[in-house]
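User: Could you write out the 3D structure of this protein bound to zinc ion? I've included everything you need below.
Assistant: Certainly. Input first, then the structure.
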Amino acid sequence: MSGNKGYGVHPTVYGNLSDKDLCALYLESSWSKMDESSRQQLLQETVNRSAAAKGELGACEVRFADLDSSTLGQQSGNVIEINRDVFAKDVYTHNYNGHIIQEKAVDSNMRALETVLHEDIHAWQNQCINGTIQCSDPNLLTEYKANNFTISLVPDGKGGQQPGSHYLNGKTVKTGYYMYYFQSTERDAHLYSERQTLQIINNLQQKYGADKSILTYQKNVSLNGYHTTYRQGQALFGNNNFDKEINQVLVNQYYGTNVAVDPKIQSAVQKEMAASYQFQIRPSVDHKGEKAMGKNYTPVTIEDYDNSMRSTVNAFYEHAKNDPSMSHEEVVAQTSQMAENYLNTMDELQTAHENGEIASVNDNEAMAETTSDAGAGVSDSGLGDDGGSGNGGLGDDGGVGDDGGLE
Ligand SMILES: [Zn+2]
């Protein structure tokens, strides 16, 4: 069991299954029949094998937790917490003006798989950073160390300096989300967990055909996945290698080096560092040391946004009608307020599109408190990946450790 350092083993009822049979439990037909404890065992077994494949010492314990609706999972110390509403009850919960709106999570099975793989990559990174295990790629280790929960001083804009966090929570307007997403630790967690999930799904699809959850997950990846997000970042920063620049700024800050970087990106990262630091020291929130994985509310196209917002307005209306605490007038007033907000946002998006700007709703109130991120998508990579192996289940497709890493 786990000692002081907690690098435990967590045997499960699925320990004897082959990788292929274990993966088949993620099919909608199996997943939908599994209760919370069976799902916990499946996710734990997945993490056990993922950790072993990457050479981690022990494996994190997987727990369901009542997380904020925007956070799918988080990893801290030797524990991975995953969202109970989404992954045990299959619902996304939105809070609109104090009213709880629930939406069915159609691909909770595949999202759960991606989420635990994502969080396990953070666990592996942490063991590399703290020296528990040896990182096979020294350049990667350099980046990871410069992207941890440490502090350095950044310009405060008034000629002085202020503290900034080397882990970026994505708190600055517009570009913050992309700095969160493509800082080295999150970049790799997003890319590799999405790629592994897609590979597992492809194998399942070949053998069993597609189910609704598979199609939904694949669609979400193409809309909000890694490669789409990467292209958005390129446009937003006006720099095709913006991710390298972001991480070089963190490396320069951490090691005191002075490698030339895009000055605009440097300034943006330094502002984000300061904003993240302020976020992490807020007394009511204990986010220090946690790397969260959230649900991305950012649709890519206007049509997509239109559809999702219309259904949210409708869902709110349906909910409000049946809410005994609301009068009919309140229902109508709040629904029309919501519809108006939606139409205004549609106008803004339309204008932004016409001006050739990237349509991003990351900055509006739809993004919740905590850091959010997307599922992520694969088909090619901005990071010099090897295209994946396409064989096998969890164990043999590696993840960061044996996948060749970044170039
Ligand atoms: Zn993460």
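Confidence is low (pLDDT under 50) at residues 295-305, 357-407.
User: Perfect, thank you.
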